[in-house]
Amino acid sequence: MNTVNNPAVVAELTNLYMKYEDALCNNKLEILDELFWNAPEVVRFGVTENLYGGDEIRNFRASRTDFKIHRNIYNLKVVTFSNDSASVTLEFRRIINGVERQGRQSQMWHHFSEGWKIVSAHVSLLPI
């Protein structure tokens, strides 16, 4: 049976996303690595970078010095498909160089034998 938005799976993914958000905002690299699929097929499109594969994503994060993000998220949407795939989308606001910016984020998650992993991610800022 193909169940969209099984409440238990939505709750599990929402909790995992909040773990990701905390790790992102506080530069917890080990947790970020744990949550991303470590495979050549994983993709992360950032505001200024296109990263392909777990190594590129990990190296990008490790090269930032004491990088912390302070942002407010809203419109968080978690949509699950059966019990092994999900999308997470949200909007955020943050101050960059003294200017409030609005951005968007989307992630695709898949449930592997070792647990849920982000298999694709995208972050973008709206024009000023």
TrEMBL record:
Top-level division of the source organism's lineage: Bacteria
NCBIfam families: HpxZ
Name by which UniProt lists this protein: DUF4440 domain-containing protein
